Amino acid sequence: MSLPLPEGPFRFIALDVETAASDSASICQIGLACVRADATIETWVSFVDPCCAFSRFNTALHGIGPAQVRGAPAFAQLAARLEPLLGAHLLIQHSGFDKRAIAGAYAALGRLPPQWRWGDSVRIARRAWPEFTGNGGHGLAHLKTQLNLRFTHHDAGEDARAAAEVVLQAEGRTGLALEALLGKG
């Protein structure tokens, strides 16, 4: 079984997933970066048994294969544990992939995805650093160098933490609260 989940309350939780194959439902790792009111970040990560074959491309990208997920819980098991925590907080993803993957994983279970509140750190980065548009963009790889982020790309826990740090730096740079950066305040 994976580590105990962090206990809130949190200002927001950044969520990232890695997938075993081109099917976005094939989640093989999930990471959370839980941001407290004082901007400290507690990271949680778990391998997930995707219950499908791994593609060579995906394994080469993130280094996760059958050996790493052996004995890991399936998404259905993790979802039951995560739903109370994730349903109580604003979730931040970096692009739309993670929300699509979660929706796909629920669809594979024959369920509709929960109606969680989602925000996008790419959108936040565009507001905070408009000068990156057409000049490297707002992907995590470019933001890593421009914002001096230290993380290992394509690890769900590290990518979630990086997305959380993008939000925190954007708040500092703009002086805007998270809801305003999301265009909701």
TrEMBL record:
Residue intervals of the Exonuclease domain: 11-176
The entry's keywords: Exonuclease, Hydrolase, Nuclease
Molecular function as annotated in GO: exonuclease activity
Name of the protein in question: Exonuclease domain-containing protein
